[in-house]
Fold this protein.
Amino acid sequence: MTRILHIDSSARPGRSDQKQHGSHSRRLTAKFIEHWLAKRPETEIIYRDVGANPPSPVTGEWVHAAFTKPEDREEWMRHALRESDQLVDELLAADIIVAGVPMYNFGMPSQMKAWVDNIVRVGRTFGFDRTRSDVPYWPMVTGNKSIVALSSRGDYGYGPDGRIAHLNFVEGGLFTPLQYIGITDQFGAAIEYDEFADERTEASIHAAEQEVIGLVDQLLAKHRDVKVA
């Protein structure tokens, strides 16, 4: 049985297909989950809404605790890492991560960045050994996991080779740290023209939803033999 970690990070509540001024990224992640469950209803969904309930940002105490060996940690250190431990456990348990990541000022929402900072953990998702002069860091996440980033943008042309692709730090900001820890199977789709609110917006929504359906079908084949340990 496949496990999917479904993350929403939009500050907007509700989906744009159900609520005025609702979130386009929430709409796309819901479309992915609905289409997936229609094909594979036994799938376990782990849901986390970081838009409504942001993870705590990394602090000096967090860093101190994370870089202390587990057997040497004091109680305050274990407390400082408790939320991060839960987020890492959810990530490691999942076969597919489906993340709604709207563009805010050319990058991901701060709520999503806090999630990234909490799951990129020394000793849990990446290894570090300063005596390895050639490659002191290495990924620790295994299991052929896939990440799907579903975004929305007010302007247009942020996609690969687009007119303002160089201003898009959403997918790269998410995919780069996940690749660093070992999640290299990466996919995405996005709605554009949001601020135009015209026929171009509607066409982009339709195209993105069709792309999401295609991604579901592609990942169904890739993860058809996944078993729960």
Summary: The mean pLDDT is 95. The first strand starts at residue 3 and ends at 8. The beta strands are 3-8, 44-49, 96-100, 126-128, 137-139, 146-152, 185-191. The two ends are 9 Å apart (CA to CA).
